[in-house]
Amino acid sequence: MRKIILYNSDNIKTEVEWVLDSIWGMITSNGYKKSDFAVVCCDDNSLMTYRRQFLKRGLSLREPGEVILPDQPIVREVMKIIRIFRDPYDDEALRKIMWYFGRIESERIEMILWHARMKGVTPCDALQEYIDSLPTSSLRSEGRMLLRVLKKKHTGIESCMMLLVNCNFYRRLRMDGEDDPEGTKRYYLDRLMKTVRGFDEKYHKLDVSIGERIRRFESYLWDQSERQQKDSVLLTTINKPLERDYFIVFVMGAIEQTDFANQKRSLLNRRNLYETLQRSKMTPYVTYYKAKEMEGYYVPCKPSRIIDEIPESLKKWTL
After folding, report:
1. Is the pLDDT of residue 95 over 50?
2. Cα–Cα distance between 316 and 282 in angstroms, integer?
């Protein structure tokens, strides 16, 4: 069996920085692609921390079975909303806007849309009448801001997206139906906004209507997401064994407290870790940290006992 490179860091942040430097170095000097790497976290509780740290440094990630960006429920919801800029008579888009605006009852929404059809006006004009009848000045003020955004002549999709920020849609979208303690909705909304800015920068000279621009953005979003899915580092946990071989496999967070909390899990993780190391075509890496931050304090961590079980002849320590 090939040697295993071991690295001991002071904390998670320095561990992530070392792994990132190693990945970027191999991509730059050896011509590897991001899809050649797999990062396996032994500590399930630190998975979100690893993800945030990697994304801060600009490393694109994917997870096993991950749904691509346009298929994420929160992104589909946003795209349905901004279609109102393509078609002012899009009832479905306006229903969602009215629902997020003031949690208007569905019967009330249908009544407003029915009046709009009867009078031959756009749903936005019908919404104007409803907003003018709201009981508090703060709701009327927010509603008028919403209408200004809807009726404005937009030149880029990002200005349409500001609807989500200016009218508190961003917060309501993230909190709709359930809390978002892990920040999943916020993560995908931020990724969507980043894609929007990239599109507007690339096609800022495109002389088409905002409706046509949104239509083209929808295709651009799918193309970019599929391309990113193919060229990204796999991020997974030790509980989900790798399905195929990778050129380089990093096993991170190999500490005693989380990996081997009980004998049954210890045996399972030993087996999974052994299989994970076998999935690396080149030299695999195992990293761990000396201390973990919990509630503002640093708690000492011991290396996983699996490290002691690796024969000394196969270990190669790095600084």
Report:
1. yes
2. 14
State in Å, rounded, how far the first CA of the chain is from the last one: 22
Q: What is the spatial distance between Cα 187 and Cα 154, in angstroms, rounded to a whole number?
A: 26
Which pLDDT value is given to residue 249? Answer: 92
3 state DSSP class of 286: strand
Q: What is the pLDDT of residue 167?
A: 61
283 pLDDT higher than 80: yes
Alpha helix (H) residue ranges in 133-243: 137-151, 157-166, 169-175, 184-202, 210-230
- The type of residue at 229 is Q
Residue 195 vs residue 90, higher pLDDT: 195
Q: How far, in Å, are 44, 91, 244 from residue 227 at the CA level?
A: 28, 33, 20
| 10 has a pLDDT exceeding 70 | yes
Torsion angle of alpha carbons 149, 153, 156, 162, nearest 10°?
-10
Report d(CA 242, CA 301) in Å as an integer: 26
In which band, very low, low, confident or very high, does the pLDDT at 188 lie, cut at 50, 70 and 90?
confident
Q: Where do the H-state alpha helices sit in the chain?
A: 12-30, 47-56, 73-82, 91-102, 106-119, 123-132, 137-151, 157-166, 169-175, 184-202, 210-230, 256-259, 263-278, 305-309
Distance of alpha carbon 147 from alpha carbon 127, whole angstroms:
8
Give this prediction's pTM.
Answer: 0.58
Q: How far is CA 244 from CA 60, 238, 280, in A?
A: 19, 14, 9
* Closest to 192 (Cα-Cα) out of 62, 66, 12, 69: 69
Site of tokens 């009218």: 167
Burial class for 186, CB neighbours closer than 10 Å (0-12, 13-18, 19+):
middle
Under DSSP, the state recorded for 133 is T
